[in-house]
From TrEMBL:
Possesses non-specific lipolytic acyl hydrolase (LAH) activity. Hydrolyzes phospholipids as well as galactolipids. May play a role in disease resistance. A motif (DGA/G) lies at residues 218-220. InterPro entries: Acyl_Trfase/lysoPLipase, PNPLA_dom. One of its GO terms (biological process) is defense response. It comes from Digitaria exilis. Transmembrane segments: none annotated. A motif (GXGXXG) lies at residues 23-28. Pfam families: Patatin. PANTHER family: PATATIN, XYLOSE ISOMERASE. GO terms for molecular function: monoacylglycerol lipase activity; phospholipase activity. PROSITE patterns: PNPLA. Its EC number is 3.1.1.-. This is Patatin.
Length: 411
């Protein structure tokens, strides 16, 4: 392996471990809450030095998830085998920086700013993105995709090529022109249309003189839930007989262990019937209930479809217990916006994440459209905190097995 991962590859163990993080702007606070809990459980099992990046073969993310992933996989200057941030640092990071990334005011000036933003969105993006670009560049510097502590998969959409562009550690190690600065990838995958400006950058192969340009926007337009993209990239590596993956075995989905973290879906009363939607013009589609319905529906439809496909796959192969999807399907209308950065909303997002941890495990039934409890043992209905605790044990056991089998492995 050419990256800095301190854990031996899947070929030394039994499982292929995947973490997926949805996009959602400030709602990234919700999965960040789950990650802090998961890392705390890993630390209880394996010591205070345990970090998320030590346990996952691939971390896939879109939009705001890309920034979260960068924080989890960026090597610390003091110890290049450990990330610069712990998972518990992500929520404070959001609380500190979101009000400057998405500036807003309340009261009379708040209404004035909303009107100004609507006018601005006619001619350009709602925010200029300068502060976001600064903090991402300060955080990541010139670090390249291939230098992450574990493999990352980050979808974007190239507006000039008119097709998805998937950045990954796998590609970066084999294709110099795909080894972009991680900062550029994070800025691009966060560039939601109408909200933040598209991002242009180039990569150069200094040995051959070849170069490639990228014109990218929000990875959520490709897939707001990047779980399937991650599975696809891993499948390619297995087909190519990558050193990280078993070289002689065919693809076996029974080996996958997946944790997929959502950023929340709205409660029922934000959904609009056809008679209402039929009256909308361009402004109606761009502004309703402090949200942008067109972008909102597009992103969440993508997430729902991925939820359904992945759940059905794991169910058909009899491995539903190796997939954990955490998604709140009833967040309040006030918390739906991806750029509402008031103190009240940000604190409310923390509470949504913390409350969901202690709710009974649920699943979304796509045929009858209602939530259904899933009792898993004879004592009580398991909560999402219980499930994360169980998955932490599986991850810990897998890492210990790989470390025992690491003879002949070079990081």
């Amino acid at each position: 392996m050419e990256n800095n991962c301190t854990c031996p590859p899947p070929s030394k163990g039994k499982l292929i471990t995947v973490l997926s993080i949805d996009g959602g702007g400030v709602k990234g606070i919700i999965p960040a809450t789950f990650l802090a809990f998961l890392e705390s459980k890993l630390q209880e099992l394996d010591g205070s030095d345990a970090r998320i990046a030590n346990y996952f073969d691939v971390i896939a993310s879109a939009s705001t998830g890309g920034l979260i992933t960068a924080m989890l996989v960026t090597p610390s200057p003091r110890n290049t085998k450990q990330p610069f941030y712990e998972a518990k640092d992500i929520v404070p990071f959001f609380l500190k920086h979101c009000p400057r990334i998405f500036p807003c005011r309340t009261g009379f000036f708040g209404w004035f700013c909303k009107i100004l933003h609507i006018i601005k969105m006619i001619f350009g993006p709602k925010y200029n993105g300068k502060y976001l670009h600064k903090i991402i560049n300060d955080l990541l510097g010139d670090m390249r995709v291939k230098e992450t502590l574990t493999n990352v998969v980050i979808p974007t959409y190239d507006t000039k090529c008119v097709k998805p562009t998937i950045f990954s550690t796998f590609k970066a190690r084999s294709k110099t022109l795909m080894d972009a600065r991680l900062a550029d990838v994070c800025i691009g995958t966060s560039a939601a249309p109408t909200v933040l400006p598209a991002h242009y950058f180039e990569t150069v192969d200094y040995q051959t003189g070849a170069s490639r340009s990228f014109n990218i926007i929000d990875g959520g337009l490709v897939t707001n839930n990047p779980t399937l993209v991650a599975l696809g990239e891993i499948t390619k590596q297995i087909r190519l007989r990558s050193k990280e993956f078993p070289e002689t075995k065919p693809l076996d989905y029974h080996r996958f262990l997946v944790i997929s973290l959502g950023t929340g879906l709205p409660e029922q009363d934000i959904k609009f019937d056809a008679s209402h939607v039929a009256k909308w013009g361009i402004f109606g589609w761009l502004c309703q209930h402090n949200t942008m319905p067109l972008l909102h529906m597009f992103l969440h439809a993508s997430s729902d479809m991925t939820d359904s496909h992945v759940a059905n796959l794991f169910k058909e192969i009899g491995c539903s217990d190796q997939l954990l999807r955490i998604q709140d399907h009833n967040i309040p209308i006030a918390a739906v916006s991806a750029d509402l950065s008031t103190e009240k909303n940000l604190q409310g997002l923390i509470k949504i994440g913390e409350n969901l941890l202690h709710k009974p495990l649920s699943k979304d039934d796509y045929e009858i459209s209602h939530m259904e409890s899933m009792p898993k043992d004879n004592q009580h209905t398991l909560t999402y905190a219980d499930m994360l605790t169980q998955f932490a044990k599986l991850l810990s056991d897998e890492r210990k097995l790989r470390l025992q089998n690491r003879v002949g492995w070079v990081s």
